[in-house]
Amino acid sequence: MATPDFIREIRATAGHQLLWLPGVSAVVFDDEGRVLLGQRADNHQWTVITAIPEPGEQPADCAVREVYEEAGVHCVPERVVMVRSGRQVEYPNGDRCQFMDITFRCRAVGGEARVNDDESVEVGWFEVDALPVMHERQLFRIKQALSDEPTWFETTSLE
């Protein structure tokens, strides 16, 4: 995911200190039940479409915008399937961040899956039983989007 300008402005004064950032993930299914994935340009990992909302942008609107910008697919968010704090990430330049991710299940309504910007090297539809190698956190997002369970979240016991 490319670094938004507003984060570059924060980094100009915050340096490499840990930033707590919003994030959205879109698990998009087509009418055949396939899931849309992109292979990231920065690390070549397969993921669902992810993004950082712009200031003031609604998370669901961000998911819709990014799915089109990155993959050329129009989609409609159907529901929130997961809310989760991610692990701390340190980038090669020393910048540190941690994301609060909201994952949406989305339905494709148009467009054609293609690499639509410089954030992905490949984009495609995959059968859920024939996914490429992916991190467990990506597979968990897909699993939650496939279930009819309430929104998943994790709590820490105070006992």
Quick one: overall form? globular
How many strand elements? Answer: 8
- By secondary-structure content and strand pairing, the structural class works out as alpha+beta
Following the backbone from N to C, one meets helices and strands in this order, namely HEEEEHEEEEH
Strand content: 35-45%
Textual characterization of the structure:
The protein has 159 residues and is α+β, with helices and mostly antiparallel strands. It is 21% helix and 38% strand. The chain is built from three helices and eight strands; from the N terminus they run H-E-E-E-E-H-E-E-E-E-H. The protein has helices at 5-14, 59-71, 136-146, and strands spanning 19-29, 35-40, 46-47, 49-51, 73-85, 89-90, 96-111, 120-126. Strands 1, 4, 5, 6 and 7 form a five-stranded mixed beta sheet that branches. Strands 3-2-8 form a three-stranded antiparallel beta sheet, with no helix packed on it. A hairpin with a 5-residue loop joins strand 2 and strand 3 (46-47). The protein starts with a helix and ends in a 13-residue tail after the last helix. The model has no long low-confidence stretch (mean pLDDT 94).
Keywords:
159 residues, single chain, 21% helix, globular, 8 strands, alpha+beta, 5-stranded mixed beta sheet
Task: Draw up the topology in text.
Blueprint: H1 5-14, E1 19-29, E2 35-40, E3 46-47, E4 49-51, H2 59-71, E5 73-85, E6 89-90, E7 96-111, E8 120-126, H3 136-146
Parallel strand pairs: 1-7
Antiparallel strand pairs: 1-4, 2-3, 2-8, 5-7, 6-7
